[in-house]
Amino acid sequence: MRNEKTKNMILCAMFVALISVGAFIKIPVPVVPFTLQVLFTMLAGLLLGGKRGALAVCIYIVLGLVGLPVFTQGGGIGYIFQPTFGYIIGFAVGAFVTGVIANRSNRPGYKLLLGANFAGLAIVYLFGMVYYYLISNFYLNTPIGIWPLFLYCFLLAVPGDILLCIVGAILGKRMIPLVREGKI
User: How many folded domains does the chain comprise?
Assistant: First the structure.
């Protein structure tokens, strides 16, 4: 039992570190940068389960909000006023949903893993786009319409994230049995 708790804490800490590093592996695109955070947050859900995956992302968020520069543009409590902060909130909810869906089966197949990843990704985009719209229009007073929001915050960013969902499903299929059998 104690070894299981230790393993879970180590895996959770590892994903906090991976998500943090993933913020800085980025390809610049307009408005929302393409990073590997999506991959690492979905893998957290797949490998740790919904609750622990979301916990890893929440720890990452808390570290960023207390001032550690783990977000793509730094850190600190003021980051909640960044229009892209909604995507970060979405990472936690997306990791939870991804983990819950994927862990319905002891040996999930590619279809289930891919479906879980796409469900989590949809949540990330939903939170991100709604937050972006609200902060831009009602706090920053830099109005953005629905079409530009959809173009810049979804269409330009989603192709790379679809690829990451596929990569996540492939990695998850190989790694879930290893984590469950205690080999990782």
Answer: 1
CATH number at residue 32: 1.10.1760.20
| Domain with 171 in it | 2-180
- C-alpha 155/C-alpha 73 separation (Å) is 22
Q: Which amino acid is at 12?
A: C
* CA distance linking residue 71 with residue 63, whole number of Å: 9
Distance CA 60, CA 19 (A): 7
Q: Which of 175, 137, 164, 167 is nearest to 46 (CA)?
A: 175
Residue 161: half-sphere exposure toward Cβ, Cα within 13 Å: 26
The 10s digit of each residue's pLDDT in 102-138 is: 999 989 999 999 999 999 999 999 999 999 999 999 9
**What are the tens digits of pLDDT across the range 15-71?**
999 999 999 988 776 666 788 999 999 999 999 999 999 999 999 999 999 999 999
Compute the distance between CA of residue 42 and CA of residue 77 in angstroms, rounded to an integer.
25
CA 150/CA 21 separation, integer angstroms: 27
Quick one: which of 58, 164, 170 has its CA closest to 118? 164
Contacts of 21 (CB under 8 A, 6+ apart): 36, 40
